[in-house]
Write a structure and sequence with these properties.
single chain, about 700 residues, alpha+beta, Multidrug efflux transporter AcrB transmembrane fold, Alpha-Beta Plaits, 5-stranded antiparallel sheet, 4-stranded antiparallel sheet, 13 strands, about 65% helix
Length: about 700
Amino acid sequence: MNAISRLVIRHRHGTVALFLVVAVIGALLATQVSVNYNMIDYLPEDAESTVALDVMAEEFQGAVPSVYVMVDDVSLQEADMLKDELAALEGVQMVTWLDDTVDLKTPIETVDAETMEAYYKDGSALYMVAVEDGKEIIATDAIYELVGEKGALTGDSVSTATMQKVAFEECMKAICILVPVVIVLLLLTTTSWLEPVLFLFAIGIAVLLNMGTNAFLGEISFITQAISPILQMAVSLDYAIFLLNAFEEHRQTETDPKRAMELAVKQAVPAVAASALTTLFGFLSLTFMRFEIGGDLGLNLIKGIIFSYISVMFFLPALTLCFHGLLDKTKHKQILPNPGRVAQYLLRFGVPLLIMLCLTVAPSFLAQSRTGFIYGTGDPAEGSRLAYDTQRVDEKFGTANAMVVLVPRGDVAREKLLCDDLAQLDHVTSIVSYAVTVGPTIPSDFLDPDLITQLYSEHYARIILTTNTGFEGEDAFSLVRQIRETVDEYYDESYTCGQSANLYDMMEAVQGDTALVNGVAIIAIALTLLFTFRSALLPLLLILVIESAIWVNLAVPYFQDMSISYIGYLVVNTVQLGATIDYAILLTETYLQKRKRLPRKAAVREALGESMMSILTSAAILSIAAFTLAFTSTNYLVADLGMLLCRGTVLSLVMVLFMLPKLLELFDGGIQRLTLRSGFVSEKEKEGIK
């Protein structure tokens, strides 16, 4: 590493030019990255709904209905004609309406009222539309243009189209808010007007490299696109701050800036590597999720940490030496005073604070396991057209939710019996199938081929159910189980899909991920701390402190009687641990150094005073970045994850500043005995130190 750093420093101008060229290439490649907005694509391949979608794609032309279109002030005849116009639009694969369930030539009075009102009510028609994957924007825009102000659209594909339109804009908005705020924060906590620019430039290069290399992955999820750049910037700015702080220290003793930088890099490597590794292992645990969106996000964040490390260790030294003269000219006094005196007040109330925090942690541990979860994308953003249209549809027709069941073709009588049983289930409002719509007595050769291809393939019969549950929740998931159990009574082979079935499978997949993901993160970070501190006790204390903050963070929604995104829950569990344990590491490292020449109370006091500003700066950057995500995003998943991480960062900060110092003092003897070559000052030496 020393040889490489000397080479970089010797060829600093070439190094800067090389990184700039690669960054430009990365920026160009980033524009070619495909973004996947369909969370269902990340379900495990063996999930029933995943298999069902694959089978249906092979066997049928139309997909599961994913858009609900309501049109007001239309007669039955006009509604029937409008169905054909909807079916002819680009991106629309299939339209299901009343005429697929009953013969419109029969007197309306003879039609079952419940069936009629599921599709046509008080002059309003409700259509279920299947949209081609990848053409959500094209299809929904065309439908909006066709139905005009009389129409209202809701459903999963409408949500996807909305996300696609605003995702890039919201990401840029978040960055435009975050960067100036971070610059101001760094200006307040550093001693040069130029330093914040160098920090952000180095990390910005790393972000561009990370985003550009996504082009080689084929595609990334919308969650990764929204949060990865901001999280990468927030968690890795510490590396740059540590390096330049070390450079400034060595400038006091070295007249040659190049020599000072060599020593700074040598000093920074172990500390930055330890910090990067703990964060990296937190992100690595996400790749163990069966729900593959964790792997997508985890891999991207891992790349981000690696690129940030490379940029700070190689690009930033070269860039700093190119501008070290200007760096000297832009020096200023530290604007914010060092909060060292605050440490004395914190430690004065250390025992009561520790007791209070411990009393908070126990109920929080129990409460966080009872927090309710949302597995989908949540409700549409308040004030949006989607929210308004959804309310209109729900008020007129109630909640509409489509599910599809695939069973082997060949026995129409059995299919009819199954449909009869399914119709008896609570929350099932209508059924479209060959056996129900046509009946077992009419041969398929006498019917419209288009109708047959929608309901029958070469091997399977398709049954489309409409339910009045939401997409997820106790009623929806209970109905999914009942439908699958009912179908299993008639067929050995069957498949169920639809938004509720997909989310049910997602729930089962991610709930199974919890223990594995958290366990991998804790074990990996504990091993890193074990080798970093060469102590058997310190890893336990540090992880306990951050895990306590995580428990309190995840318990807050329970006490608020609110549900949170399960994806956010899993991600925050690992990201908060991996990113904020650095605060505990910094305080502990400083304490261990001080403890070699000071008694325990004095060592804790000085360690807290010296490290507090760095911890506050790091926590402020990450919490502001997370809050920016929550503030700017209309996507429920991204906003919820941002708010969880913002609150979690603040709680980790509180635990490190209020809980950890007293733990280090109380367990000083155990730390000394269980740390290899601790070098702590002896008891006799303590007595002579005032």
